Amino acid sequence: MEFESSYFTHPGYVRDLNEDSFFCDDNNSLWVVCDGMGGHNNGNFASRLITDLFDDILFTDSFNTNVELIQNCLVQAHKILQKKVNNSNSNSIMGTTIVLLYIFGNRAICIHCGDSRCYLYKNGLKCLTKDHAKQLNGQKVLTSAINAPNKKLTFEKKSFYIENYDKFLLCSDGLYDFINEDIISYSMKQKNIHKSMDILIKNVLKTKAEDNITAILISRSSK
Q1: What fold characterizes domain 3-220?
Q2: Which of 23, 197, 216, 220 is the least crowded, having the fewest Cβ atoms under 10 Å away?
Q3: What is the pTM of this model?
């Protein structure tokens, strides 16, 4: 099956810097959204480090081997962040969430760490990821991310089989924090993913949009 994607990113109305980043490779059926954390450009560096590393993957004809290559990129990114923080001689935090979808034939895997999400639309909307976050003193705090100086790297993996008309949405919390899942579901039920994206953009930009926003819609190619 061949797939196509539609993407959107926006800094929102409060922050000057967009610390989100994304990666779209329709040819190899790999899509990634990262939401950087750390401030002072650290989050920007961390999120773009992840997406830049995926540019260098040389995929094989094996699903399992390719998943291993993807995971190696995450391990490499974690090591780079650790080294950068250690060399800075500071108590700075540098990290990023990640949500990733890889499809190979009718097999798929979603890898995530943090609170960026993957939604599946199949006769209705379903969130495939569980947020790694908790509320503390009225604020959301991540319980897991690819970050330094945290020495342990953990991420969740969900493998599954897909059907021809499955659609997917990868997004940072800047999208789902400001529009509800009814709007997301309505957008994803549209036949054309570019029309779906237009609906998401129109609705999220009507809100306060106080965070960076990134979204990728993926569906089987209509060509």
Answers
A1: Phosphatase 2c; domain 1 (3.60.40)
A2: 220
A3: 0.96
